[in-house]
Amino acid sequence: MATPITVTVPGTTANLGPGFDCLGAALTLYNRFTFAALDAAPGTVAITAQGQEADRVSTDASNLAYQAFAYYFQQRGITVPAVAIAIDLEVPLARGLGSSSTAIVGGLLGANGLAENPVDPAEIAAMAIAMEGHPDNVVPALVGGCQLAATGNDGQATLCPVPWHPDVIPVVAIPDFELSTAEARRVLPATYSRADAIFNTAHLGLLLRGLETGNGDWLRAALHDRIHQPYRQTLIPGYAEVAQAAQAAGAYGLVISGAGPTLLALTNAAHAAHVCEAMAATWQALGQTVTAKVLSLETKGATVTAG
């Protein structure tokens, strides 16, 4: 019987202000998935979960990590083998930190590992994008770092790593309420003005240079957006107050992580702890339970170990 495979996948933050649906970065929060072959009928699955919000994780065939595991074999025309999956959670669910992407990447890499790795990383990435529907979370979860994705007229994504200066520190404030991606998309307008499109194009370009150089003045200007954040802010009580507190404590700016409600500030090492404390204290003063963390860019992406 094949040796069990453990896949460690980082959480992610996507959009980063003007980088809506095209820019994402891996962070030092992790979910772990261990896959072990079962001596049982094909298609049998046994799932256990521990860690943050483990009681909310599906333990049947509807589990997303298992769906990705099965998808891998289905795409290759192979019967889905029986499997036991043990999940250890650190990335909170439905908070804009890529929990679904960790499950998709974990399931695909776990399947590939049990199959003795016949599929290369590019094909794994294509499968992950097909399952998720867009690349901005699954690609950094898979390969690490900050990644820019551009989808061509043929529907294929061109992926580009974005240099991230080590002095740029991500700080997250994770509230104790959820915001579904579907709800966050419903509030967006169907069309945008030319002025707003030009605004975001310019600010995305500036953001890429700011991340590469660590230039604080560029980052302060770059993190503004007119495509999604003005509309999604209304779904996040306390957004304005937390943003003001973060900037007063030394953040370059604050954005919605993914679809929210987690808020992400970018700052430098000298101010990171102060920004973290200010974001948490401000939301708590407004009556919201919150967990704030100083994180780092995760550069390795998902890792696979045997045994």
Would you summarize the structure shown here?
By secondary structure, the protein is an alpha+beta fold. The protein has helices at residues 64-75, 99-114, 121-132, 138-143, 181-186, 194-213, 216-222, 229-232, 239-248, 272-285, and strands at 5-15, 19-37, 45-51, 83-89, 146-151, 157-162, 169-175, 253-256, 263-267, 290-294, 303-306.
Q: What integer value in Å does the Rg equal?
A: 19 Å
In percent terms, what proportion of residues is strand? Answer: 25-35%
Mean pLDDT: 95
Largest sheet: 7 strands, mixed
- The CATH class designation of the largest domain is Alpha Beta
- Tell me the domain tally: 2
Order of helices and strands: EEEHEHHHEEEHHHHHEEHEE
What structural class do the secondary elements suggest?
alpha+beta
Second CATH tier, the architecture of the largest domain = 2-Layer Sandwich
CATH fold category name of the largest domain: Ribosomal Protein S5, domain 2
Parts with pLDDT < 50 across at least 5 consecutive residues: none
Number of strands: 11
- Total helix count? 10
Q: What best-fitting shape do the alpha-carbon axes yield?
A: globular
- Intertermini distance: 12 Å
Helix content: 25-40%
